[in-house]
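Dear H.,

Thanks for agreeing to be a second pair of eyes. The structure we're designing against is below in token form, covering all 437 positions.
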């Protein structure tokens, strides 16, 4: 087969653009096909209706995440911190309780510690847990809701713990795999507070776009095609043919698929992908949530708010003062329950904690409803880890997988996307080099 390019990368998020950089810098002809009109995937820094540039998708990073921290160091990028919060509000049924933000975390400490007590012992090397032990396979059938119900908690403790895990999974805790929680905590050294700090504290001073643009600039040897949707992948013993929506075909030696797990089945692959992976994709991973930025009238104070997974919006965090107003970010566990672009609807939810809130403007992108993502940050459901871990490591086919969904370490984070892109690109480069030897 005569190749049009050596490697086709499907998807231009952090995994895809990192893989393209690594391959092109090693002399491998690489073509990136991105269905959107921009790079970035589920990260998106843009000017919003709130009056300033904000990240509508993935946002937070941390130095305990080695791959993204290496990129931050490489490009000399600046981080800023979300503000230290003063007050907190938490809902238990229709009752509102208040206290310091530190007190709310203290209320969570015993139960969070209990749920995650075995993280380090069960996953001592959290970047190298595959193949799964028999113990991990058994635990993968357990949901984080199952673990919550095992604890003898009062209504306050149950509501807080349920709300925290609903936030972490961007979805219903009954669909969140306990093994996913264990992986996150093991990566944070078994410390749940450090894990939570990594989730929602440090962010790029100039948005995630600052890192994406830096990597893309170093991948400028790649042929990057935006607004190009892939519909089919045909693999033979000689190579791979990729077909796009307009009928264009590209022949390559390898293909890297970086699309989110929930939309993998939107691409027709021949021969078919392993049934265990397509079944997981059809079932869908656990994240079904929403994220919305809100401009609130006046200076409302540095506060957080939490509710259980039955809430439409169940977590709120103050982020910025802005022109005399306040910018806050809110999350909910289920798409489709609220019009994220309706200020009054969002205001009604926020007033369940703070009746004084007056919403000026809102802005959001519904990732779970977006046909090019079908999910927010990737979080596995029970009985999915083995299939996804196997697909991420399968080198028997010319079609490979990369992305935060398939990360060995920080799955669900920018770090995991970069790690996966690096690993897959290195493996393919080695194979192509050996084929020419």
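And this is the sequence the design step returned. I haven't edited it by hand at all.
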């Amino acid at each position: 087969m005569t190749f049009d390019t050596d490697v086709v990368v499907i998807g231009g998020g952090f995994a895809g653009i990192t893989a393209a950089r690594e391959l092109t810098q090693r002399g491998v002809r690489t073509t990136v096909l991105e269905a959107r009109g921009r790079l970035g995937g589920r990260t998106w820094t843009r000017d919003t209706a709130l009056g300033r540039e904000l990240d509508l998708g993935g946002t937070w990073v941390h130095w305990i995440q080695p791959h993204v921290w290496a990129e931050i160091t490489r490009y000399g990028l600046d981080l800023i911190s979300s503000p230290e919060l003063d007050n907190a509000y938490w809902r238990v049924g229709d009752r509102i309780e208040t206290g310091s933000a530190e007190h709310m975390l203290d209320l969570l400490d015993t139960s969070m510690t209990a749920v995650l007590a075995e993280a380090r012992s069960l996953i001592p090397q959290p970047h190298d847990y595959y193949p799964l032990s028999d113990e991990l396979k058994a635990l993968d059938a357990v949901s984080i809701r199952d673990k919550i119900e095992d604890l003898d908690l009062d209504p306050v403790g149950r509501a807080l713990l349920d709300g925290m895990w609903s936030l972490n999974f961007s979805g219903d805790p009954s669909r969140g795999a306990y093994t996913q929680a264990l992986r996150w905590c093991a990566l944070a050294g078994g410390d749940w507070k450090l894990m939570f700090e990594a989730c929602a504290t440090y962010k790029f001073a100039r948005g995630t776009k600052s890192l994406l643009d830096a990597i893309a600039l170093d991948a400028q040897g790649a042929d990057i095609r935006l607004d190009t949707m892939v519909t089919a992948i045909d693999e033979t013993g000689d190579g791979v043919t990729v077909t796009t929506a307009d009928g264009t075909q590209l022949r390559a030696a390898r293909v890297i698929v970086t699309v989110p797990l929930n939309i993998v089945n939107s691409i027709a692959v021949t021969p078919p992908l392993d049934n265990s992976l397509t079944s997981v994709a059809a079932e869908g991973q656990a994240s079904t949530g929403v994220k919305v930025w809100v401009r609130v009238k006046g200076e409302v104070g540095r506060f957080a708010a939490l509710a259980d997974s039955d809430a439409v919006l169940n977590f709120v965090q103050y982020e910025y003062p802005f022109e005399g107003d306040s910018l806050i970010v809110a999350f909910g566990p289920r798409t489709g329950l609220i019009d994220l672009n309706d200020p009054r609807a969002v205001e009604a939810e926020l007033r369940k904690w703070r009746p004084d809130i007056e919403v000026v403007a809102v802005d959001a992108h519904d990732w779970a409803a977006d046909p090019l993502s079908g999910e927010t940050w990737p979080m596995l459901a029970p009985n999915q880890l083995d299939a996804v871990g196997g697909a991420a490591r399968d080198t028997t086919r010319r079609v490979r997988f990369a992305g935060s969904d398939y990360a060995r370490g920080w799955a669900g984070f920018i770090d995991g996307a970069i790690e996966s892109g690096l690993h897959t690109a290195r493996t393919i480069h080695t194979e192509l080099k050996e084929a020419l030897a």
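Two observations from my side: The domain at 102-200 is CATH 3.90.660.10 (Polyamine Oxidase; Chain A, domain 2). The chain has a mean pLDDT of 97.

Warmly,
E.
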